[in-house]
Amino acid sequence: MNSTVALLVTVVALTNILACVGLLWWMRRRRGETLSETTGHVWDSDLTELNNPLPRWWLWLFLITVIFGLVYLVCYPGLGNYRGTLHWSSAAQYGEQVRLNEAELARTFAPFEHRSVESLARDPAALRVGRNLFLNNCAVCHGSDARGAPGFPNLTDRDWLWGGTPAAILETVSHGRTAIMPGWRAALGGDVGVEDTLAYVLSLSGRSVPAGDVASGHDKFALICSACHGADGRGNLQLGAPNLTDQIWLYGGSVEAVRNSIANGHQGQMPAFIDRLGDTRVHLLAAYVVSLGGAQQLASATPGAAP
């Protein structure tokens, strides 16, 4: 702080201490002082309020408190820019606590360094740590059970926008993803074009709606939507474009939700965690996601699992 503010803080602090000493002096009990002084307040004819000095023990306790305050101000910063004889500072203490915490974290994560996601996914100790990391960093969006919510993918199934291999999951956790679905109402020719496209998109998963021309929707889909979702509507992992032929919908699979997605679009952002958590913790997070059962390598290794 600047010198003027420092001087003001010093004056205020010392003035308060002097005021406390003055109060002690004023409240002391003088030798030979009587205890019969009253305030003039009487209740029930015989209950009189006295105005006696404070007891000695209370004054000594108050004096000890004042002395403690003076000693504290000598040892620690409290008088403007004066640093105190111990040269303590909150910034230095915080830095020391951070250093100790980082050292403890380094010991905790040391057994998991330089290991592949596949190896960590088979290690119960690594998965316990990974689950804690998931709950602290990912559950706010994907849920504590990792089953997601509208706009946040379910991580326990086998439907992956950017790929479900351990390498792809690690890439997603490390560097994040940005997915953009433009709003197509104007490009499709207004609400009629949206309804036609809606009818075709729903037909890809075996559904139908009363309104909309499926044939017209097919033509519009081939012209506009197939560039991302593919001619067969099965999506594109390179672009994060979802598969439209299954019954899994990121923003909801109701007719109204799909109509809104086509007409108005969506924008999704998966943050990157590599800078925040570091390489080892990112690998542990990816391993935990792999262990949830939806990763493609686990699916292929599981008897009877879907391809």
If you had to describe this structure to a student in words, what would you say it looks like?
By secondary structure, this protein is mostly helical. Helix 7 (166-175) packs antiparallel against helix 11 (274-294). The model is unreliable at 298-307 (pLDDT under 50). It is built from 12 helices and 4 strands; from the N terminus they run H-E-E-H-H-H-H-H-H-E-H-H-H-E-H-H. It is elongated, with a radius of gyration of 36 Å. Helices cover 53% and strands 7% of the residues. Strands 1-2 form a two-stranded antiparallel ribbon. A two-stranded antiparallel sheet has the order 3-4. The chain has 2 domains: 1-28 and 48-88, no CATH class; 117-301, Cytochrome Bc1 Complex, Chain D, domain 2 (Orthogonal Bundle).
Tag the structure with descriptive keywords.
single chain; mainly alpha; Cytochrome Bc1 Complex, Chain D, domain 2; 2 domains; two-stranded antiparallel ribbon; 4 strands; disordered C terminus
Topology:
Blueprint: H1 3-27, E1 38-43, E2 47-50, H2 56-75, H3 90-109, H4 117-121, H5 124-137, H6 139-142, H7 166-175, E3 177-181, H8 191-203, H9 214-229, H10 255-264, E4 266-270, H11 274-294, H12 296-301
Antiparallel strand pairs: 1-2, 3-4
What Rg is obtained from the alpha carbons, in whole angstroms? 36 Å
Query: Count the helices. How many?
Result: 12
Helix content: 40-55%
Q: What does the overall shape look like?
A: elongated
Distance between the termini: 66 Å
Overall domain count: 2
CATH topology-level fold name of the largest domain: Cytochrome Bc1 Complex, Chain D, domain 2
* Percentage of residues in strands: 5-15%
**SSE order in H/E notation?**
HEEHHHHHHEHHHEHH
Strand count? 4
| CATH homologous superfamily designation of the largest domain | Cytochrome c-like domain
Helix/strand structural class: mainly alpha
How many strands, what sense, and barrel or not for the largest sheet?
2 strands, antiparallel
CATH architecture of the largest domain: Orthogonal Bundle
Under CATH at level 1, the class of the largest domain stands as Mainly Alpha
Provide the spatial order of strands within the biggest beta sheet. Answer: 1-2
Overall pLDDT, averaged? 89
The low-confidence runs, each spanning 5 or more residues with pLDDT under 50, are 298-307
